[in-house]
Amino acid sequence: MSTRTIAGQKNLQKINQAAKDGIGGSPLRPDGTLKVKGEFAYSSDLWHEDMLWGTALRSPHPRANILSVDVSEALKVPGVYAVLTHEDIPGEKYYGLEIADQPALAIDKVRYHGEAIALVAADHPETARRAVKKIKVEYEVLTPIVTEEQCLDPETHGYVHEPHEYKSHAYGNVCHEQKLVSGLGVTDEVRALADVVVSGEYEVGMQDQAFLGPESGLAVPAEDGGVDLYIATQWLHVDRQQMAPVLDLPLEKVRLTLAGVGGAFGGREDLSMQIHACLLALHTGKPVKIVYARDESFFGHVHRHPARMRYEHGATRDGKLVFADCRIVLDGGAYASASPAVVGNAASLGHGPYVIPNVRMHAIALYSNNPSCGAMRGFGAVQAAFGYESQMDKLAEALGMDPVELRQLNAVTQGDRMPTGQEIDAPAPVAELLQRVKDMPLPPPLDLEHLDVRTLPGALSNTSHGEGIVRGVGYSVGIKNVGFSEGFDDYSTARVRLEVIGGEPVAMVHTAMAEVGQGGVTVHAQIARTELGVEQVTIHPANTEVGSAGSTSASRQTYMTGGAVKLAAEAVRHELLERGRHRYGWTQTDLSLVGGKVVSASAGVLIPIVDLLGDDAIEQTREHHHRPTVPFDKETGQGFGHVQYTFCANRAVVDVDVELGLVKVVELTAVQDVGKALNPLSVVGQIQGGCTQALGLAVMEEIVVKDGKVRNASFTDYLIPTILDTPPIPVQILELPDPHAPYGLRGVGEAPTVSATPSIVAAIRQATGKALTRIPVRPEHLTDTL
Amino acid sequence: MRVTFSANGKPVEADDVWEGESLLYVLRERVGLPGSKNACEQGECGSCTVYLDGVPVCSCLVAAGQVQGREVRTVEGLAGPDGELGLVQQAFVDAGAVQCGFCTPGLLVQTDALLAADPQPSDTDIREALSGNLCRCTGYEKIMDAVRLASARTCAGKEHAE
Question: How high is the ipTM of this complex?
Fold first, then answer.
């Protein structure tokens, strides 16, 4: 096997930093050097002798019955080794993250535009693509069920899935729902308690994760009848759990190794090409590589749920919230994916970080013939934040109050209860975050004397030299949960080994954590250095030879797998010190490992680790479980459902060309409480990246779907922020420790993506006076051309 | 067809190249230089940026046949003769400009070209020069830091040499 194939080992590099590079420092990424040299092996870079290329035939229709599939002409193409349909699947035909409702290859019908129907393996990717075009599919095209009204009237418009096939609590075309009532709920009597009531309807378009590294991997058939898959994913073990039944293999014969991952943001939480590559490899007996082209990537993963929301808020004359009511309708598309958990988040977090005595909420996800939606950074909290923060601004205006002061007046703090009844039992400095972001210096005003057209709305298009430009400022705050909720035990496993190599103590950390760019590998090494007092740490390739690390999502990896590394390292330290106590009769209770030595706070250096270890190795494996949570009550939404909360506040400054409807975000400031910054450089990088994806949702990014068909599956037509679209992003971090979390840390990655979008829209509203109830905001929303 | 060209100063030869193949495909799949990335295959993302006769281009938009007899320099050619990191590469690592790293090879080549043309670009110059290179992880702030750092080191190096 070529060295390029062994992705994990290729990407493995010994970290050789000083012991000062423990937690709280910002040592450089262990994979950084390989990445800047172009030598880091991403999943799309893998190669194997005799390798075939796989690709899929995808449906051009969002809803159709498949009358026949004829693969005979495709099989005749020279260089084609296999053409497979669902009939060739050896095991279970359905899989899914939470509900196994998705066929690995379409069976008799297609439910969304781009659904995979057949697979081809050939000796050149172009041969495979051409063979796909020779597959003849006879469709009976049906009218797609795509609007909320159509979905909720199945008697007239039909069902996306036959109700008798439901494998969950779905009904009609509702995939999942969650209700919530707290206090007195929202009744006419409660409404009468408010002096001011504001309501609004809000809409969020379908955002894409748009990670740069396309879905890809290499499946290698093994002599034992199993398969080895080198793959870019967010969770190796849950991939395997879904794959093995379809491949009709026991778990241990489906072995996964993490290849280099080019970003994820939720888009790799579901399976994409994993089963397909393995089916082709097992069928042909040859290694098979699949790499999606960008258009296929848009069809091949789930997106952020589009949402329609109706909010109503009531407050007293002095600004205290009296009640809040909300209905959120999320379009889940053809298959469930993570929709149930997204609904749970939307319902439980959908009234924001505010104290509200009386609350009602109803959140649902629909089955439709639109593209499937599931996990994306912010996960159900993003859509709602646009709704409740828009409402806060509307309420402030109705009351004649400062919008920041209104938020601060109603902000939750430690000891308050969420609408779910869950007490916030860790710092929740929402008012302080808002104050700090407000107090940060503003950028200089637009200087008409010294204009650089590149910094204006329209930028290089040279559309304005300052005329028609109006500046606006907006604020927002958001709340996100960390870790999996509602009773899910998403534990993480870590194995830590300490031994002497080349005369030095070296720690090896082995987890199945998917490093997708977030910097978990850096943090794991920092934790091992801090706990074991060593300089050298080796990160073992992530694979299924060690227990699950859970998903790289929900802002959870540093908390959960970082916590597991801490536990395993502590166990290794304990065993080492016990050995010393046993051998040398140490009686001190103040021992620690520092600078490669066993040190007593009272008696000084006792012995170098090297001498205590000798030729032995100490290895310990530990699981880290977060504190238990419970599912929310289906009717009342009550329950201790979340592990941890995280908060971010933003200020956006925008310049708007009010004649052309063009927006330039001038500055996007963020203040976030991170509990403890294990690696401040990475933490700031996460917050800036999260803010930028929020900027994309505010003014640019939307998968345009018309009658169930995706109209912009390319980077030419689906726009993500460039460096010219992105402003300076000043970040201030607070470190208020959470007593329940390892080192007091708080998950970081998602909160800014939740909170930043509404601040930008608020700033555009201030500049234009427009209501702006839909994101992304488009030029036609700003120029009365609608 | 057969295509011969110079890659990072060394002569390379690719056989059985299909006429529709891009320079990017030949680099990645035929001559063992997978450092240049394929993220969009239509010239929008810049991840495949390489030097072609000293000019940065999206290698996905260059037909393989067009490079016959020409000089290509990729991210793999930015390091020194003994594999030590080039100045721009080191700055990206030091500044925390690398997260997933998929955009990095293209950004490095584009930054290298920018600083060769203008060792002290303004922030707006940097943003304009890199506006054809998409990054989804960083929010670009650390990339700005990296380019400023590389610029400062370039200028310091020149002063030192003088």
Answer: 0.98
